[in-house]
Every structure is written in C-alpha cells, then in structure tokens.
C-alpha cells in the first residue's frame, strides 16, 4: 500500500521536504480509515502537514486507492521519542 501511495504523491510533496512513511487501512468504531503517515528529515510543523494534506487529498480523490474506505487520515510521525 505504501509503495502505491508514495508513487502517486511523493513527487508532488517533495518541495515541502515531506515523504510518505506508511499507508494502511485501519478500522475504528466501525469505519474503514485510509491512513497516510508523513515523515521528513526535520520536524514537520502543522502548516506543512496542512499543505501536504491539501495536495494529497486531491491526488487520492482522483485515484482508485480509497476504494470503500470511509475516511482519509493524513498525519505526520512524531519526532524525538
């Protein structure tokens, strides 16, 4: 899953110095959630996550990867722990 998402979005978000670290589907409270985890060589602030999310949302909406998932959740890895 990660490879498919990376191939779709990494080129579009590389100028933000962000890349896809993981992508997976989870189930929470009966909902299927498509998770995309972002990472960087530096700490990712909320503004960059927001900018990346806007780009990724558009790309994912035009792909068939979301399938029958109910939500798309895009977030960054935590650093320093």
What does this structure look like?
With 81 residues, this protein is an alpha+beta fold. The protein has a single domain (2-76), classed as RimP-like superfamily, N-terminal (GMP Synthetase, Chain A, domain 3, 2-Layer Sandwich), CATH 3.30.300. 35% of the residues lie in helices and 31% in strands. The protein has helices at 2-13, 46-61, and strands at 19-28, 31-39, 71-76. Strands 1-2-3 form a three-stranded mixed beta sheet, with helices on one face. α1 crosses α2 (46-61).
Features:
81 residues, alpha+beta, GMP Synthetase, Chain A, domain 3, 2 helices, globular
Summarize the structure.
The protein has 81 residues and is an alpha+beta fold. It is built from 2 helices and 3 strands; from the N terminus they run αββαβ.
Question: Could you give the topology of this structure?
Answer:
Elements: H1 2-13, E1 19-28, E2 31-39, H2 46-61, E3 71-76
Parallel strand pairs: 2-3
Antiparallel strand pairs: 1-2
Helix share, percent: 25-40%
**CATH topology term:** GMP Synthetase, Chain A, domain 3
Question: In DSSP terms, counting alpha (H) and pi (I) runs of 4 or more, how many helices?
Answer: 2
* Element-level helix/strand string: HEEHE
Q: What number of domains?
A: 1
Structural class: alpha+beta
Average of pLDDT: 93
The coarse overall form would be: globular
The CATH architecture can be given as: 2-Layer Sandwich
The main β sheet shows up as: 3 strands, mixed
C-alpha Rg (nearest Å)? 12 Å
Query: Low-confidence parts lasting 5 or more residues at pLDDT below 50?
Result: none
β-strand amount:
25-35%
- CATH homologous group name: RimP-like superfamily, N-terminal
Distance between the termini: 26 Å
């Amino acid at each position: 899953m990660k490879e498919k998402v990376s191939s779709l979005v990494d080129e579009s978000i590389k100028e933000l110095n962000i890349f896809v670290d993981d992508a997976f589907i989870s189930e929470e409270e009966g909902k299927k959630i498509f998770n995309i985890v972002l990472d960087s060589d530096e700490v990712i602030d909320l503004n960059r996550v927001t900018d990346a999310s806007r780009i990724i949302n558009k790309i994912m909406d035009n792909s068939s990867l979301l399938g029958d998932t109910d939500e798309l959740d895009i977030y960054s890895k935590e650093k320093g722990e």
